[in-house]
Amino acid sequence: MTDTLTDASPLSFEEALERFDPVLGFEVHVELNTKTKMFSSAPNAFGDEPNTNVNEVCLGLPGTLPVVNGKAVEYAVKLGLALNCEIAERCRFARKQYFYPDTPKNWQTSQYDEPIAFDGYLDIELDDGEVFRVEIERAHMEEDAGKLTHAGTSGRIQGADYSLVDYNRSGIPLVEIVTKPIVGAGSRGPELARAYVSAVRDIVKGLDISDAKMERGNVRCDANVSMMPKGTTTFGTRSETKNVNSLRAVEHAVTYEMRRHAGILAAGGTIVQETRHWQEGSRTTSSGRPKSDADDYRYFPEPDLVPIVTTAAWVEELRAQLPEPPADRKRRLLAAWGFSEQEFRDVVAAGLLDEIDETVAAGVSPSVARKWWMGEISRLANARDLEPAALGVEPVTISALNGLITQGRINDKIARQVLEHVIAGEGTPEEIVTARGLEVVSDDSGALTAAVEKAMAENPDVVEKIAAGKLKAIGALIGPVMKETRGQADAGKVREIVLAKLGIEG
């Protein structure tokens, strides 16, 4: 066998599963939303000018000493409890040695053999209601690295002319959640990947320990995949697709890697143990660097930090503060909203439960909130190849749009236009409707009556049908009126005017 067959054509998903069984593993990194960083007093904030939220500790200057962020430890314990983990009575930090430009100390302060939480599990509900238990090996604390921006035509490390580093993210507190190897998922592996990451995101949002915006990298997943021939139990060589930051991308990355591994193995090649990069445009992965093992990092206990000791009383105090579990919340919302089980599963599968819940809290009925998020917002997101939440539409925006419709100031068609202008950054729905003159045409000036009269004059056959009692034919006049009024006519008002013109009682 050879390791040169790395460009063999991927098998189809169906053929891959006929010949091989997948073994999966996920490492989900959760950025904590503490006010300051993990080991320094530098601000933990997103979106500021590069290299402004830094101090001597973030930059790894000689002679500096770290101090543990107590709130980050509290958050890590809460997350461990929510993941059904055991909480360590004593744990410590270690130095993970490696050189990379975004790690100015030349090591990452992490936890190795003594994580704060271990031996947990999550029961993951798939789209059809089947529950799959994912066992969690550990959840450990560490600090984030800085961010590299690769400059050049590609925008990626391959082919970049040079790279810029921003240390604002360096030192932000993280919890890394590592699963045990997952076997038995079969064809549902990609679906399980998406559902698992979604469940973790729901948990950290519910705990309010992370902003949990995947598009910002607050939650990101390293997806590990290997394939073993049918009938065997020895795990294959794994690859790790790094920093996948959307639910859709996690599902697609696992699908592609399953197919890629199967293609190489079926052609007689061997898999290189490596990290890989997700390419959203082509929905493929590309080679990164050979994957290091623990020995390569030369872990040793961090000499500048004392061990962390927890007490049973403190852990139980934090356990009592945990919010409603996501599974219980889903059951409550299903009953409260009145959706069918399939409608509710579709919402959960789309990752829109929180958005719809917040929109309902903003005063919109559940059915209307679902219509907007599962309909127009999802359509616009798909057109941009984004997750719906990444469009930046706020629940109050949907509430404002619905209010304008209820008041009769705009109709559904205009509301969809207004939404696009909101996404483009033109302001609130009220501001956009006013600035663009998008209110429905009233008949205060006679404009709507004039448009109706014109439509009736141009469609005498339709008018005859209506006069003969075939009132459904009014629909054939609404189109021309809408065209005349640029879609701003009130269809109900059009019907009233037509009937009045023909002397027919509504």
UniProtKB/TrEMBL annotation:
One of its GO terms (molecular function) is transferase activity. GO terms for biological process: glutaminyl-tRNAGln biosynthesis via transamidation; translation. Transmembrane segments: none annotated. Its EC number is 6.3.5.-. It catalyses: L-aspartyl-tRNA(Asn) + L-glutamine + ATP + H2O = L-asparaginyl-tRNA(Asn) + L-glutamate + ADP + phosphate + 2 H(+); L-glutamyl-tRNA(Gln) + L-glutamine + ATP + H2O = L-glutaminyl-tRNA(Gln) + L-glutamate + ADP + phosphate + H(+). Keywords: ATP-binding, Ligase, Nucleotide-binding, Protein biosynthesis, Transferase. Residues 354-502 form the Asn/Gln amidotransferase domain. Residues 275-295 are annotated as: Disordered. Pfam families: GatB_N, GatB_Yqey. The keyword Transmembrane does not apply. Heterotrimer of A, B and C subunits. Belongs to the GatB/GatE family. GatB subfamily. Allows the formation of correctly charged Asn-tRNA(Asn) or Gln-tRNA(Gln) through the transamidation of misacylated Asp-tRNA(Asn) or Glu-tRNA(Gln) in organisms which lack either or both of asparaginyl-tRNA or glutaminyl-tRNA synthetases. The reaction takes place in the presence of glutamine and ATP through an activated phospho-Asp-tRNA(Asn) or phospho-Glu-tRNA(Gln). This is Aspartyl/glutamyl-tRNA(Asn/Gln) amidotransferase subunit B. It comes from Nesterenkonia aurantiaca.
